[in-house]
Amino acid sequence: MEKQQDNILDQVTNSDYKYGFYTDIEMETAPVGLSEDTIKYISKKKNEPEWLLAFRLNAYRYWLTLEEPTWAHLHHPPINYQDIIYYAAPKKKKELQSLDEVDPELLNTFNKLGISLEEQKKLTGVAVDAVIDSVSVKTTFSDTLAKHGIIFCSFSEAVQNHPELVKQYMGSVVPSNDNYFAALNSAVFSDGSFCYIPKGVRCPIELSTYFRINAANTGQFERTLIIADEEAYVSYMEGCTAPMRDENQLHAAIVEIVAMKDAEVKYSTVQNWYPGNKNGEGGIYNFVTKRGICKGNNAKISWTQVETGSAITWKYPSVVLMGDNSIGEFYSVAVTNNYQQADTGTKMIHIGKNTKSTIVSKGISAGFSNNSYRGLVKVIKRAENARNFSQCDSLLLGDKCGAHTYPYIKTGNSSSIVEHEATTSKISDDQLFYCKQRGIDTEKAVGLIVNGYAKEVLQHLPMEFAVEAQKLLSISLEGSVG
Amino acid sequence: MLSIRNLKVSIKGKEILKDVNLEVKEGEVHAIMGPNGTGKSTLSYAISGREGYDVEGQIIFKGKNILDLSVEERACEGIFLGFQYPVEIPGVSISNFLRTAMNEQRKYRGLDPISGQEFLAKMEEKKKLLDLPEKLAGRSVNEGFSGGEKKKNEIFQMAMLEPTLSILDETDSGLDIDALRVVATGVNKLRRPDNATIVITHYQRLLDYIVPDFVHVLYDGRIVKSGTKELALELEEKGYEWLKNGI
Amino acid sequence: MAEKRDLVMDVINATNLVQSFSEVFKQQFENTAEDASPFFQNERKKAFQNFEKYGFPQKNMENWRNTDLSKALSENYTLFTSQPDPKLDIDTIFKCNVPHFETLLLSTLNGWYVSNHGALQTLDNGVVYGSMRAAAKEYAPLVEKYFRTALNDSKEGLIHLNTAMMQDGIFIYVPANVSVDKTFQMVSLINTQENVFLNQRNLIILGENSHLRLAQCDESINNGTTFINSVTEIFMDKSSTLDHYKLQNKDDKTTLINSTYFVQQQGSVLNTNAITLNGALVRNYSNVQLLGSHSEANVYGLYLMDKEQHVDNQVFIHHAVPECQSNELFKGVLDDQASAVFNGHILVARDAQQTNAYQTNRNILLTDKAIIDTKPFLEIYADDVKCSHGATIGQLDAEAMFYIRSRGISEASAKIMLMYAFAAEVLNKISIEELRTRMDDMVKKRLRGELSNCEQCVLNCSNKENKKINFAIDMSKI
Q1: Is residue B195 part of a domain?
Q2: What's the domain range around B149?
Q3: C4, part of any domain
Q4: Backbone angles phi, psi at A291, to 5 degrees
């Protein structure tokens, strides 16, 4: 039976990455390579104020003193940072006034991705900011949101229109000297999304950013800044895809979230960057720094991520629990197949009293992939009655992949309770047989069981995303298990 | 409907079933009895197509030799196995599980998928038929179920999937009398002129509730005696020793 | 044995530690006549080069992030590079006082094997025990076959320093099919006025189907500061069984770095249990290599620390082949400013199918100044495995407290009861009854604050000055 099971596991059917197309759009790019000139070029293109250029150059000079981190369970050839184009944007003829003026090829791109930028999106109640390569191309519903005093726009627009907010909060959660990739992003970031929810406002619709890498040889370095003022609420979604290419492309993003007193931010990600082909060629290198801070009392930040894409994922969405009674959550499903590598997890830093954090991580490894959970729970001395619960499970599909768990727990408070549990398992022959006896073929059975396994996490996604994520899970594992 | 001829089954070179012959027609209920370790479960696995068994001989189902069919294909042909020890599948709700199974089987038979509404209606109908609790469908498959709940869930699935041939493997094991009655009532209610049931059991007890047309005694890999329901009573009275001595 | 020399003491200067070791190495070890076998000369040389390459542990090394040796390494130390007077009557220094516990005593004094019966002894059943250095000469082929092979390519400078500059230690050989009925008790004794740095090296070989019980007691009665860098290699042939207990009740001036490597062949069973009741800085590194199928490793530990004590348990278990089992259970109570580190790492190799590996670390913090760092790692490359780990940090169970008190038991007693119950899970794993009873007693005393440095399982020290140390865990803080 085991033999047959192995045979099933070995059967590889081809499942194509359906977002792998490339759109031919007229692009404007920076010269290849990284130098102070590149940074000045980007800053000038974006017509940035002096202080922002200084911020970038400062970050760049710091970055030069650093070495790429090697502690993660990841292996890749060295990245040549001089071989990357740091800025690529669809060529704009003039300022866009309405959707009709957007390049039809571009609209097509988003339609193919199933992201409609048109008003019909209103029906689903999602406002979209679409970022292609490095530049935000269109934000929908800005006007509707403006009525509530909500600012939702591209990062570049925010720099122009709300410089005081950007200046106050940018780098306040992830400083430009936080780590190697954060420094790089701070030096060369091109665009991204900006969101401000004023005091007492519950954002009536889901906000969403759709990231797409299109151009060849470019890196994507966007940054997102979300500020929820006192008693505000927002649910934010992020999706990503990229064309199939043989070479690796670098994506190094920053997301910063600030939640003030009694505010709540829910951030959901479905990450489906091109993972490379089944021989491990090509795919996105995804090095992302995501962090939120519960600044005021009773604030809450919740990260939910479904990670199925990228050749390499290096990502630890974290929460600094500064306010008393604040809550941090991290729900993650990470799927790796073929030669993908993921080293992902979270950091929960308990500073305030009665702070609570929950970590649920489900890793699924198939093919020749390696999937690691890495997480830190830290309770400082004065964080009385802090509470953490972590559950990290790994599911192995096949005997050539790896599943690893690296929790770090540091506690210095006697009234806190920290619990960590982890298990490693595979889909049992009995479960498969049971499903098959009821007439479900192996592939569907695996899809079912994996979705069941991931359910605890998927149920935290907004409806619009949950369905997509479920499909994605099954698709990502196609071919991995018969 | 089912015709088993000269069936030999071995696992890892060990012969479990030596020569089994069995005819089951539409509308019939057959009971297969026998002491532990005589191959009763092996027979149910061989019919349903569990991998890892070396099978010789013929299993003809609805005129077709099914030995080359996979377990799911046999299920789609209409064979249902009620498990002795149903496995737990955490996180997969019964309704999702059943709907997937049902649609796969419909697809195999060239039917369109069942609509959500129809499916729900059918669940209601069957739940009522079997007198099952309301909350059942939302729970994960067998997770945290008691022994009785697991067995009721098996019968519920049988009701939903409407198989042509149901094989109930030791459905009575681990059940108290009340649960036994519920399970048996379910089986009887689902009985139709065009389907058939094979009940595998260790004790005569279940046969008080599910009355068989034929009783077979499986011993040492062979059916050593066949008869009507009276055989079960005789067996209960005299024990399996009686048979051994007679061989 | 070479002619007797005066006690040689080389002073290691803290201001330039590596350089200072290098000088002593060149003078005393590199080409000394006493230890001139080409094999050992070569091994020492290679090891010293590795030590120079890796150096002493630094705070920025991942495995040393939470254990700081900088204070311990800022002292000037003396190295005892020659053996003490062989006529020394060991019985005048100590004897064991565990009731009804008859053991074969293997003693080292300042890192050198001492015995009234010569450097090596052979029992009727063929068991050989005694001085590691003597065994290296007497049984050269056997020692050279095993020595340093368990270490693989260690990147720990201290391990290489030990190989390069090892002085002496304990050697035990148990032939095939021999079950040793008496427990072997290894006692490391420090008795000097100086600050002392020890590199003790032990080698233990269990033949096929043999059984050995070993209690390793680290005691010290030193007036100076002690740094013990001890390395033990244990080889377990097919179907052998080892019960191994480490008892650590050190004073507050001792740094104890204990590295033990276990190499297990098919069907062997290891039970090892490290009980740390006191110590300024104790680090137990256990490296278990499951190289034969159906082998089993049970690795347990208990630590009760207070004041500024620090304990660091590092466990690396390598499931190299299928169908092996490992269990880890480490529990600790920390009071005052005490700190503890648990770093468990289970590695399941590709194709090591049907592995069962379990790892648990539970801690109770009694104050906001105590710190626990726990890192329970799993690294898994095979799919048909059952692996799990859990770590908890918390307090005594409030409901249990209530239940006990509702039966009329005082709060303080209820606390001791629950703390003892917490510890007992580990104590109950001790299979030698006399030892378990004794440990039970010591833990109870430790929890009540009645345990003194002179009341230890093996030691009736010559230093009659009552060095009672107040180990009380303050109940009001629980």
Answers
A1: no
A2: 91-163
A3: no
A4: -150, 140
Q: In chain C, how many domains are there? A: 1
Alpha carbon of C357: minimum distance to chain A alpha carbons (Å): 10
Say which residue, C291 or A89, is predicted with more confidence.
C291
List of residues 6+ apart from B246 with CB closer than 8 A = none
Among A429, A308, A439, residue whose Cα is nearest residue A9? A429
| DSSP one-letter string for C397-439 | -HHHHHHHHHTT--HHHHHHHHHHHHHHHHHTT---HHHHHHH
ipTM of the complex: 0.82
- Comparing A98-102, A478-482, C82-86, C237-241, the range with the smallest average pLDDT is A98-102
Contact at CB, A433 and B72, closer than 8 angstroms: no
- pTM passes above 0.80: yes
Q: What is the CB neighbour count within 10 angstroms for residue A41? A: 16
Chain A interface mutation, best of C356, C374, C378, highest count of A Cβ atoms under 10 Å = C378
CB contact under 8 A, A437 and B87: no
Distance CA A249, CA A245 (A): 9
Domain boundaries, chain A: 2-477
Structural domain includes residue C167: yes
Position C332 in a domain: yes
Q: Which residues contact A370 (CB under 8 A, 6 or more apart)?
A: A73, A74, A336, A340, A341, A342, A401, A402, A403, A404
Domain count, chain B: 2
3-class state of residue B16 by DSSP:
strand
Does residue B236 lie in a domain region?
A: yes
Nearest CA in chain A to C478: A414
Q: Which residues of chain B neighbour A1 with C-beta distances below 8 Å?
A: 51-52
Q: Answer yes or no: is B159 within a domain.
A: yes
Q: Do A431 and B108 touch (CB under 8 A)?
A: no
Residue A109: the pLDDT is 61
User: For residue C189, what are the contacts with CB-CB under 8 A and spacing of at least 6?
Assistant: C93, C94, C107, C108, C109, C110, C219, C220, C221, C459
> What pLDDT band is residue C462 in, cutting at 50, 70 and 90?
very low
A30 sits in which H/E element = none
Helices A442-458 & A463-477 angle (0-180, nearest 10)? 140
Select the residue of A435, A439, A451 nearest B105 (Cβ to Cβ). A439
Residues of B in contact with A440 (CB under 8 A): 72, 100-101, 104
Q: Is-contact A465 A268, C-beta < 8 A?
A: yes
